[in-house]
């Protein structure tokens, strides 16, 4: 069962350090009480022999029969060591796209846990910085976001089910479809030629009527966000199982529609698509390793911009548009995977703002504030 903590304007989360201190004291008391109970239940030595029973009987083995919730060790362990051992004994939650449907659909900012662990707590400063970054965007347009530690299953989310025009951000998940479903299965090869069957963008690199390899077109669509490369791939391969792939992930708002290549979808669907991307990259196949490297150099990423100066590695795809004639399509989107200190996080940000430097800076500030929650989301 998913566990949530919904944050409103009048409710603050517990201070993490205070909570850890409280839990440490409680665990210390429990260990002492358990030790006292064990001593009280010990049989008294026989007054003549000084033994606890017949000399021929071996004592019952107790190793491996630990009391649930109590970590047994050898010697004397300090409380931090006990807590560390307890955390290391936990198994990572097995995340599925279906499990993401258990996260509440609420207009409030929420933290959640998809494991048996309780929903995490945010430091007051972290919470304040996040809400400040949210408000700066919300004063200008709609917003949805998601961040989760894929090992712990803990995360933070806002407005998961409001649809946003995805723009070029969908080029990343579509590249995963091509590699995962067509190339890995042998239906298509990276060096197959693909015709350029459209010219939707006069600034695109590919002229109508030409051709290039599938590999080169994927690279151009992801790294350079080339629209002609992307649309040609869609027109060529959409009918080879795209709808089945998307619905199999529980993504129902990105169906194949002839002549329409840039879907409108919600942050929850984006999270599912990138969780699937993480699972695909985990296979370690040659094609998945190549695609991950391609996504790590995708241009125009406000998530990557936000994490400059850290050791984080970002594999993502952004999308952006500014239109005075069709303002309903105005959007700044970025979503992907963040590798940091041995852990992986999914981050998705969808903002209904027209593309400009000012709005990119606001989205970058939000991405930085979201990333600052990673310590609260991770088991140490």
TrEMBL record:
Residues 1-40 form the signal peptide. GO terms for biological process: beta-lactam antibiotic catabolic process; response to antibiotic. One of its GO terms (molecular function) is beta-lactamase activity. Residues 144-350 form the Beta-lactamase class A catalytic domain. Residues 42-77 are annotated as: Disordered. Keywords: Signal. It comes from the Bacteria. Pfam families: Beta-lactamase2 (PF13354). The keyword Signal applies. InterPro entries: Beta-lactam/transpept-like, Beta-lactam_cat, Beta-lactam_class-A. Residues 47-57 have a biased composition (Low complexity). The keyword Signal applies. This is Beta-lactamase class A catalytic domain-containing protein. The lineage of its organism: Bacteria, Bacillati, Actinomycetota, Coriobacteriia, Eggerthellales.
């Amino acid at each position: 069962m998913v566990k949530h903590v919904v944050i409103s304007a009048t409710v603050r989360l517990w201070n993490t350090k205070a909570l850890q201190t409280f839990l440490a004291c409680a665990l210390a008391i429990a260990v002492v009480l358990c030790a006292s109970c064990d001593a009280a239940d010990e049989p008294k030595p026989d007054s003549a022999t000084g033994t606890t029973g017949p000399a021929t009987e071996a004592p019952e083995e107790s190793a491996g029969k630990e009391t649930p919730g109590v970590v047994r060790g050898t010697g004397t362990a300090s409380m931090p060591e006990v807590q560390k051992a307890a955390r290391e004994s936990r198994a990572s939650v097995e995340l599925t796209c279906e499990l993401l449907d258990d996260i509440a659909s609420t207009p409030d900012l929420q933290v959640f846990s998809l494991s048996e662990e309780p929903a995490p707590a945010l430091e007051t400063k972290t919470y304040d910085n996040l809400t400040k970054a949210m408000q700066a965007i919300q004063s200008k347009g709609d917003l949805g976001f998601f961040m989760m530690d894929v090992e712990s299953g803990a995360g933070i989310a806002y407005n998961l089910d409001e649809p946003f025009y995805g723009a070029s951000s969908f080029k990343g998940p579509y590249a995963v479809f091509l590699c995962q479903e067509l190339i890995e299965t042998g239906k298509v090869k990276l060096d197959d030629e693909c015709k350029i069957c459209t010219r939707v963008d006069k600034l695109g690199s590919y002229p109508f009527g030409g051709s290039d390899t599938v590999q080169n077109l994927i690279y151009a669509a992801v790294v350079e966000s080339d629209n002609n490369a992307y649309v040609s791939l869609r027109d060529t391969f959409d009918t080879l199982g795209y709808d089945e792939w998307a619905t199999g992930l529980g993504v129902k708002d990105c169906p194949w529609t002839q002549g329409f290549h840039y879907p409108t979808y919600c942050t929850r669907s984006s999270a599912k698509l990138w969780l699937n991307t993480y699972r695909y990259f985990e296979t370690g196949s040659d094609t998945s390793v190549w695609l991950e490297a391609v996504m790590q150099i995708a241009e125009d990423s406000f998530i990557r911009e936000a994490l400059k100066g850290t050791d984080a590695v970002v594999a993502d795809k952004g999308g952006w548009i500014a239109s005075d004639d069709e303002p309903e399509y105005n959007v700044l989107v970025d979503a992907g995977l963040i590798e940091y200190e041995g852990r992986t996080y999914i981050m998705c940000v969808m903002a209904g703002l027209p593309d400009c430097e000012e709005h990119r800076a606001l989205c970058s500030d939000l991405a930085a504030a979201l990333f600052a929650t990673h310590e609260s989301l991770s088991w140490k």
